[in-house]
Amino acid sequence: MSKNADELENTAVAQETPSSDVILRTEGLTKKFGPLTATDNISLDILADGITSIIGPNGAGKTTLFNLFTGKYEPTDGQILFRGQSIGGNEPYEIVRQGIVRSYQITNFFSELTTIENVRLASQARYTGFRPSDFLRHHESLEEPIADARRVLERVHLADASHEPASSLSYGQRRHLEIAIALAAEPDLLLMDEPTAGMSPEETRETVELIEDIATDTSVVIIEHDMEIVMGISDQIAVLNEGSVLAQGEPAEIKRDERVQRAYLQGGGHD
Ligand SMILES: Nc1ncnc2c1ncn2[C@@H]1O[C@H](COP(=O)(O)OP(=O)(O)OP(=O)(O)O)[C@@H](O)[C@H]1O
């Protein structure tokens, strides 16, 4: 039976609109730096549920993709849809307000302030705004930001260190403080760049558990080089190679994908 015009139109809409289980979609996303193409026509779906890992050899375009998601870079071409809305080229503070937050691998807090003061400042921004100049504005009450900061510190197991100067925290605790600062913005999508890099086996185990806990109510995307962690933690994996998506799927599919093995698991260099 042939479809009438309405049915055809509905089909077209259904194909174009990301389904509700996709939180972020890229369509033909390209970023060029002069003659170099860092991400090349990437079309990728990040599912709302669970943890997506982005893997690939050095220079594959993983960090560039994160920088496009957070508004640090403007796409040269293509679209980024967050919950169906185009965000490509938005300012970083707008993207944080829209619900995408990145937790940094590098230390990015005020070391002379206490642990809770650092998280409280980040929670305050939810009330005053995420524009750099908004940090100078005052929320009339500190009660809510302090209560939020306490809750977040419980979650990342730093409650006991609340009143320690951030400079006195161990390396693993500092990384958890970074995560706490990101969580204080109450993201819907949390981006994490090598969340266990440089950690001891014990710190790594705690951090993996923490990420799994966060993923129960927040969509999580991680860039990760450690294949044991990737295979254990991920619900979905996207493999990039030379700026393009080589494969996307569940860990078992990715493990047996011959192109992936050739490009990355056996052949390609990584940290
Ligand atoms: N700001 C920039 N200016 C010029 N070239 C850049 C810039 N950022 C990234 N590149 C280039 O884009 C390509 C992709 O880099 P990107 O950092 O995204 O890769 P990656 O997959 O994150 O690598 P790694 O695992 O080493 O961090 C590389 O060739 C890199 O040199």
From TrEMBL:
Record's keyword terms, sorted? Amino-acid transport, ATP-binding, Nucleotide-binding, Transport
Spans through the membrane: none
A GO MF annotation of the entry reads: ATP binding
- GO terms for biological process? amino acid transport
Q: Does the keyword Metal-binding apply?
A: no
| Alphabetical list of Gene3D superfamilies matching this protein | P-loop containing nucleotide triphosphate hydrolases (3.40.50.300)
Domain ABC transporter, first and last residues per copy: 24-267
UniProt cross-references to InterPro entries, sorted A to Z: AAA+_ATPase, ABC_AA/LPS_Transport, ABC_transporter-like_ATP-bd, BCA_ABC_TP_C, P-loop_NTPase
What SUPFAM superfamilies does the record tag this protein with? P-loop containing nucleoside triphosphate hydrolases
Biological function: Probable component of a branched-chain amino-acid transport system.
Per the record, the similarity remark reads: Belongs to the ABC transporter superfamily.
Query: What protein does this entry describe?
Result: Probable branched-chain amino acid transport ATP-binding protein LivG
Provenance organism:
Natrinema soli
